[in-house]
Amino acid sequence: MPWYRLAIYAGVVIQMASWAWIQSRGGHLSDRKYLLFCGMMMIGQTAAGVECILGKTWGTLAVQIFFFIFTAWGGIVRFREMKQAD
Asked: pTM for this one?
């Protein structure tokens, strides 16, 4: 198996682990933990996006890009709220 496939699978595992983590907390994380969650999700979304490019599944890639932007936006909003509270 090529190294990049292992990297893709590792990224998706990170994404699934972060999803399980937030679900185990009932969807509630502290500000710093939420930012970590967003970063972990974005790693997985990037890996899934690379898989879409390799498989030439452009519709699925568009959805991954949407999820990446949505997750990044959530992290930015939370970060800004965190800084305003300081």
From this structure: 0.90
Measured CA to CA, the distance from residue 49 to residue 45 in angstroms comes to 6
Integer Cα distance of 48 and 54 in angstroms? 10
At position 73, the amino acid (one-letter code) is W
Cα angle 1-60-48, degrees, rounded to a multiple of 5: 40
Contact 68, 46 (CB under 8 A): yes
DSSP string over 7-33 = HHHHHHHHHHHHHHHHHHTTT---HHH
For 31-61, what is each residue's pLDDT tens digit? 999 999 999 999 999 999 999 999 999 999 9
